[in-house]
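Please check both lines for our workbook:

___
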Amino acid sequence: MKNNLHVFLGATVADAATRPLHWVYNQKKLLTYIKGKKDFTFLKKNKSPFYNIKTGKVSGYNEVGQVMLKTLVEGHENIEERFKKNITKNFGPGSMYWKNLNLRAKYRKVKDWRGIIKGPWIHQNIIETVKNIKAKKKLTGGTKVNESDGYCAALPYFLYGHNFNSLKKIISTVTVSKISLKYALAKFHLIDLALKGAKDPINEFEKTFKKNSYFKSVVEDIKKVKKLKSKPHQIVVKKLGMACSYPGTFNSSIHSIINSTSYKGAVLRAIKAGGCNCSRVNFIGAYFAALKGIDSIPKSWIKKTDPAKKILNQK
C-alpha cells in the first residue's frame, strides 16, 4: 500500500477488534465475557463499562488518527492548521464526542453513571486540545495526562514519510507532555526499524539507543519487560500498568510483542489483559503490520472494521 498505510490499517483493525472490551479493568469479569471463545474480537455486545458504540467502529484513540488521515488526503499544505480545524470539527462543540462530554458532567452526580454514555468517548488530551485551539493558544496539546493520543494522531503523518523533527510538532498538537512525546517517538523508531527490515526491532532499538540520554528510560523499560517475558501476560500487565498512561501502556505492549509471533496472537493477548487495551493495540497492531506486512492482518477482521475501506482506498 502507498505510504506504508498498511501500518495504519494494522492499528485501526486492532483497535476496532478490541473496542467492545475497552476499559474492562476487572480481569475476572473480562474472562467471563470471553469464556469458551477462541477469537473474542469484534464482540457483538458491548462490554465497555464506560461507553457504547457500534461494533466495527474505533475508539477515540484511533479516531484522532482517522482525522489526520482525512487531513492528509485533503492535501499537504498547512497540515498542522487544517488538522486543528478537523479536530475541532470531529471532536468539538456540535459533535457526538462533545455532547457526550457534557452528559458525563451531568451524570457525575449519579453514584455509578458508567455505561450510561451512548456513543463515543472523548479523551482528556483531546478535550484540552479543542479548548486550546478555541482559545488560539500557540501550544494546543493537553498537559494533564501522559497518554497515547499524540502517537495515534501522528501515525498516518509519519507513514507519509515526514521526518522525526516534524513529527514532534504533530504529536504536540494533541499532547505537550514530555513523557508522551518520548514514548511516542520510541514507538515510531520501532515501527521505522520494522519497516526497514530489522528482524528484531526491539533488540535493534536497544542497541541503537543504549547510549542515548533521551531514550535512557525507554531502554531501561524494555530491559525490565524482557526480564518478565516468561510471566503470564495478564499478571504482567496488572503489574506494569493496565491503564492508559505511559510508561505502563508502552511496557505492557512490549510484553505482548515479545511473547507473540503473529499480529492476531499479539492482539488477542492484549485484549485478554483488559484495561486500556485499545491504546496498546494501536501500537501492537501497527508494529506487527510493519514487521510482517498487510497479509498478517486477518482479512475477516479487516471486513468487520468500519474505517478500513477508507484506508484501503488510498492505493
